[in-house]
């Protein structure tokens, strides 16, 4: 079979080297004679794996010592409710910034759990000259007391990314499900960062939480024990049986990231991949991006064909050329190429060539 490049938004492609290693050691991990799926999460070998994973993630993201790193269940949405349950006891209020569908979904969950009166929400996306752009308000000018402000710096469905940091008087909580580890960030600016694993980390179901120690003193709501950050900290993310295979693969992805040069190298590669793809979209009249250049996601490149009648032909021919999962999210239509860390430059080049040829043939 010739090379397939998988542009799925998530679960997304994982680094080939990681998949090959996992395949080789599937039945006999670490000379145990059994699969990593079949051993106790409390065995000393598995605990060593988790410690290495945490230490590698700390190095990769330069996580300060006053932050805990948790490996939890429930993906991204699990954290929509976990943050509310953990930080909004006794009628505490929170501010949510909305820049696309996932931050909106987070608001809906927060309203459901904490009540609409306790959740304020600001839409931070405007359409200027036909392109969507973000303007983050100066939060220091808002005369209210919030437990936290929540936002999503990379909106997977909409293809919108926020590169600037928030100037906030309250702890910042960020849903980095689709851009964690894609570029350098200053962790110390955040009260809590979470990410569903299935884009830049590993298989779905797992989520990573990076939480500043002092956040754990905020009053919590009554909640399920497995989503309780304090219990997760006290039990080294093993209050109940963790998703061990996902954790193992995440550990392998972190090792791979280190071996190829870490987040700094990834950022350079991601800048280059996104540049080549957006250049193609901008240079050919055949395609259009609805996002202003300063907010174009490096991870999820959304675009439309100017003649949408050609959408299905485009998708079918792309598929035949080995370029799969380019259909935009059902809520927004059009196309979306997700080019996370694992997508090699050759995949983007193959897509650019396909798009250029397709435009020439169908002009
Ligand atoms: N947040 C973002 C930014 C996402 O992209 C996604 C999933 N695509 C989620 C949250 C929800 O993640 P999950 O399906 O793991 O609950």
TrEMBL record:
Root EC class: transferase
One Pfam family named in its UniProt record: Aminotran_5
Pathway in which this enzyme or protein is active: Amino-acid biosynthesis; L-serine biosynthesis; L-serine from 3-phospho-D-glycerate: step 2/3; Cofactor biosynthesis; pyridoxine 5'-phosphate biosynthesis; pyridoxine 5'-phosphate from D-erythrose 4-phosphate: step 3/5
GO CC, alphabetical: cytoplasm
GO biological processes: L-serine biosynthetic process; pyridoxine biosynthetic process
GO molecular function, one term: O-phospho-L-serine:2-oxoglutarate aminotransferase activity
PROSITE patterns linked to this entry: AA_TRANSFER_CLASS_5 (PS00595)
Entry's cofactor comment: Binds 1 pyridoxal phosphate per subunit.
Domain annotation Aminotransferase class V: ranges: 4-351
EC identifiers of the protein: 2.6.1.52
Annotated PANTHER family: PHOSPHOSERINE AMINOTRANSFERASE (PTHR43247:SF1)
Family note: Belongs to the class-V pyridoxal-phosphate-dependent aminotransferase family. SerC subfamily.
Subunit structure: Homodimer.
Record's protein name: Phosphoserine aminotransferase
